[in-house]
Amino acid sequence: MSALTKLTTVEGKLFAREPLAMFWGLIFPALLLVALGVFFPGFDTPSADLGGFRMIDLYAPIILGLALATLAFATLPAILATYRERGILRRLQTTPVSPWRLVAAQLIIQMVMAGLSAALAIAVGVAVFDIPVPQNLLGFVLVYILAAVSMLAIGLLIGAVAPTVSSGQGIGMAVYFPMLFFAGVYFPREAMSDGLLAVSDLTPTGAGVQALQDTWSGLAPSTSSLLVMAAFAIGAGVLAALTFRWE
Amino acid sequence: MPVIEVDNLVKRYDDVAVVDDVSFTVAKGEIFAILGTNGAGKTTTVESIAGLRQPDGGRISVLGLDPHHDAAEMKERLGVQLQESSLPDRIKVWEALDLYSSFYRNPAHWPDLLDQLGLTEKRETKYAELSGGQKQRLSTALALVGNPEIAILDELTTGLDPQARRDTWALVEQQRDRGVTIVLVTHFMEEAERLADRVALIDSGRLVALDTPAGLVSRADDEQRIRFRPSAPIDESELAALPEVTGVNRVGEQIVVTGVGNVLHSVTSYMARNQVIAYELRVEQVTLDDAFVALTGKTFQNPDNSEI
Q1: Rounded distance, CA B132 to CA B138, Å?
Q2: Less Cβ crowding at N or C end of chain B, within 10 Å?
Q3: For the whole model, what pTM was predicted?
Q4: Which of A84, A95, A103 to mutate against chain B (most B CBs within 10 Å)?
């Protein structure tokens, strides 16, 4: 087995052994969807204000945005900062395998987790609340991958520059909560003022949720949302590659 | 044939030279110890050899390779155990070895390493649940899993209990017998004395001495200490007047004579002439500890002794 395959296998096992990371990264989004539908009255009744949609239909893509944000801003930077602080990256530096492969393995694991978490949330939504499956499925999958890459690139950048585990978590949280806000977790983008919406459009979570929502209902994603995500993916990714410190 | 050549190595942090013009070579198949107190520059020296630090001056060659330009090839053939490097908490012992062995072209059969290091029964144990000594031994195993031609082992027995230390020493000797060149960084005198073919003594970033352990001892001082309890009172001033004697002290009932050259003969002859028997006679050899003090003017501190 190649070093990357083996690293990815081991990183996957390690992730699976972290109950908290598994809960927040994998199960929580589906659970939140159920909780919203069950505990908030009117969440699954069509509303004229929402163009005949139900609140749950709007919240499904928002929850996928939350799933990505959790992995990218909360989980990934903490893991990378831990690996640096504990000398795990440094230890790898003494072997023929570059520590970048460990970073790559982590990104692969986070992508897999993002996929599983979305699949679980959608399956629960379909089964419990009868939400439709994404109508533009191919577009939806591609948008989800782009959104994941753009957010993970930011998580990678935080992990690259945070000197300690606690600062990694601190910076991660400082990004995470505003990103949740702009994704529409606290109130959906449909309820945002024009000014707020314009800002949200420029964030990877806001653009991501919009593009997910568009493709879910069968439309093509807007070019601007794709550009915003691509810009974050490339910008943060390049910055992270330039600034990443191994110790 | 040297496998490591270090020429005039200089490494500065914030304009302070932590390694200051250090040169040495390590021959193929030897156990080479780098000995010094904490902060002497030992670790920085070996980290430069391992390609983890970019020297500010001087030249390093490892197996004829440059640690930076030929890093990938060099790391294939050089195993390194570092201080302050660990593994993820939840990785199991066998997973770590299996993973690290996949990094090398010709890895060792890692179950044998586990066996030699007494870790076989910890195969399924997670890293966080290992004792300090077990973590240390796993770290040693990881440094050797690539079947390296050279192994750099930094403080490999720190935190080990005496039995585990002896096991680790046996493993090091066994590796050497297989032809592996060992660079041992240590602040354990006993370790250097027991294992090393040659010792580089580093103090404040400078190479103070480079010799065999016995050579260092003889170079440091040829003073001897003789202790005994006389069967009858003796005149200390007469003892002190003997030509080879440099000092006489009384400690309780015991007489401690220090001297050079053939001091033992002149003391015992004096005693015989006066028909006094020396009970509990002991001649104390100069140790590497004494050599260290003599060569650096510092007392040797072993912070880890307290952990044993």
Answers
A1: 10
A2: N
A3: 0.83
A4: A95
